[in-house]
Amino acid sequence: MTEPLLSVRDLTVQFPTRRGLLTAVDRLSFDLAPGEVLGLVGESGAGKSMTGSAIIGLLEPPGRIAGGEIRLKGERIDNLPAEAMRRIRGRRIGMIFQDPLTSLNPLIRIGDQLVETIVTHTDRTPWEAKLHAASLLEAVGIPAARARIDSYPHEFSGGMRQRVVIALALAADPELIIADEPTTALDVSVQAQIIAVLKDLCRDKGTAVILITHDMGVIAETADRVAVLYAGRLAEIGPVADVISRPHHPYTRGLMGSIPSLDGGRDRLEQIPGSMPRLSHIPPGCAFNPRCLQAFARCVAERPPAYRADASEAACFLLDPAMSPAEAAR
Amino acid sequence: MLAFLIRRIAEALVVMVVVAFFAFSMFRFMGDPVANMMGPDATIADREAMTKRLGLDQPFPVQFAAFLGNVAEGDFGVSFRVGRPVIDLVKERLPATLELALISGLFALVGGIGLGVYTALRRDGLLSRAIMAISLIGVSLPTFLIGIALIYLFAVELRWLPSFGRGETVRIGGWTTGFLTGSGLASLVLPSITLGLFQMTLIMRLVRSEMLEVLRTDYIRFARARGLTTRAIHFGHALKNTLVPVITVTGLQLGSIVAFAIITETVFQWPGVGSLFISSVQAVDVPVMATYLLFVAGFFVFVNLVVDLLYFAVDPRLRSATTGGH
């Protein structure tokens, strides 16, 4: 395998609170190849957005990276001084947020917001930057881009604003885009368009994407690989087709079982009993053990490492090749 | 835009007439000006002649209508006390008050926005905490006390600055200014601080809380995610959004600077319209008092109009709501 674009090793994000230290992301590891699209899925509070914020260095205090490391093309970026990290943001790692209605400064023309971003990160003159801004807006599918470059954000619809946000995130040609629920706030009819714009542009430019979402449909259509998070930990990671058709972790199996399918094979959707534990009450051992129908003694005692299973990896003792069949049967 | 302006000016006129009505009717109950002017030795015939000359024997609506008509022509009547046209008295005093208000307003705006931004950005800094603590004094102490304390410290003890009056003034046309002489500028310092301190601390606290609010918004987070410089984020993106609500409050506060000038002018014996009003109250000089009230109301209305126009300049959402919308 070629050198990964992004390498996350044992990333741990913690929040000091009055009730003690909460661990929002717990020893998370994954790699991302250049140009690859990685889906990051999980329930609310599973640590998806925290992971994204940690990578781009925008954790809200008092949250902080408490352990592990993040490397961008081999260079460590999790402990860089603020100014060096600022130069990476926008230039090498871009980010798209959930709500396009609030992501744009309402008092500044979109053209000026684009020009500002371009001029900050490149040698372009403001005049060249403005031409580039217009071509970016064209690329994200804003009709009459040249005419609308002097418009204010409120003059655009939600979908159009998210296109502008994508143009802004891509303005300085970053190598990686972190898209944090980019379509959740949009109408269903617009969601597919936005995902298509993002996907096509990133493929053309060779930009890698971390797509944070809880929409498995979007992941299935867009991502190359998918990582399933549960209570801040990695449950399973692997090629999208494998994870969807042959999930190995019991949680992933439950997650896939709870997705309605249009061909209507089943009448009732399967549910996972219980709910994800709060960060202050994560059980010992495997975080999923209280809800897992196949849990056994070891699941309560130890935290499972990631085991290889086909093309995927999953953190479940059921996949431990050294485990005795008798133990698994219990 | 033009329609908006015309509507606002019409509203302003209504406000002015209402103020004029209240001013005029209230002062009818403030004692008998004739008795004040004539002294105890005057004969009844003299009093009646005086009452007739001042128009005080007419019924109230007639008096008010006459007052309004005169005002519209720029005739604010003749002072009962001094016997000169009120407009001349006000003209003499106006430059002093307006210069004082201008400097206090600038002090309040520049100091308030500057310190507000500073304390918001260095939220946990020692200096910020100190500024916030001291600002409580500005909000809670009455103006006259601050004025007297400043006089005691800088004029009596340290002898750095004059304690009263405008110093030397220069006459340019009908305007006397204290801006062009050393003593004139020195005399402005203490009254301006006294008058502007309350507004400054108020603006500062407002700017601080607005700025903290704006710094938490998604578009600031997105600006950070785009790698913009801290400077561009704070002063290009955050400050501009902070100023939208600040403009309203600041506008009203600048209006009240002129109203509050009465106290400051009294403490510093400042020869402005405020002290003219105080001496007129003592003499029940109705035309002067009514003119003063009209002047303050007019100033408020004017400032509000400017504030509305500033909104248009700052916030593009309002511009399209009135021009492009329908």
TrEMBL record, chain A:
Q: Does the keyword Nucleotide-binding apply?
A: yes
Alphabetical GO CC annotations of the entry are: plasma membrane
Going by the UniProt record, its keywords in alphabetical order are: ATP-binding, Cell membrane, Membrane, Nucleotide-binding, Transport
Against InterPro entries, the record matches this protein to: AAA+_ATPase, ABC_Ni/Peptide_Import, ABC_transporter-like_ATP-bd, ABC_transporter-like_CS, Oligopep_ABC_C, P-loop_NTPase
Task: Give the location in the cell.
Answer: Cell inner membrane
Q: Where is the ABC transporter domain?
A: 6-256
Tell me the CDD domains matching this sequence.
Answer: ABC_NikE_OppD_transporters (cd03257)
Q: How does it sit in the membrane?
A: Peripheral membrane protein
Pfam families, alphabetized: ABC_tran, oligo_HPY
One GO MF annotation is:
ATP hydrolysis activity
Q: From what superkingdom does this record's organism come? A: Bacteria
- UniProt GO BP: peptide transport; transmembrane transport
What family, per the record? Belongs to the ABC transporter superfamily.
What name does the UniProt record give this protein? Methionine ABC transporter ATP-binding protein
Which species is the source of this protein?
A: Prosthecodimorpha hirschii
What is the phylogenetic placement of the source species in the record? Bacteria, Pseudomonadati, Pseudomonadota, Alphaproteobacteria, Hyphomicrobiales
UniProtKB/TrEMBL annotation, chain B:
Query: Could you tell me which residue ranges the ABC transmembrane type-1 domain spans?
Result: 94-311
Membrane-crossing residue ranges in chain numbering: 12-30, 100-121, 133-155, 175-198, 243-270, 290-314
Q: Which UniProt keywords apply?
A: Cell membrane, Membrane, Transmembrane, Transmembrane helix, Transport
Q: Which GO BP annotation is one of this protein's?
A: transmembrane transport
Matching entries from InterPro entries are given as: BPD_transp_1_N, MetI-like, MetI-like_sf
**Keyword Transmembrane recorded:** yes
Superkingdom of origin: Bacteria
Q: Which family does it belong to?
A: Belongs to the binding-protein-dependent transport system permease family.
Task: From the Swiss-Prot or TrEMBL record, give the protein name.
Answer: ABC transporter permease
Q: Tell me which species this is from.
A: Prosthecodimorpha hirschii
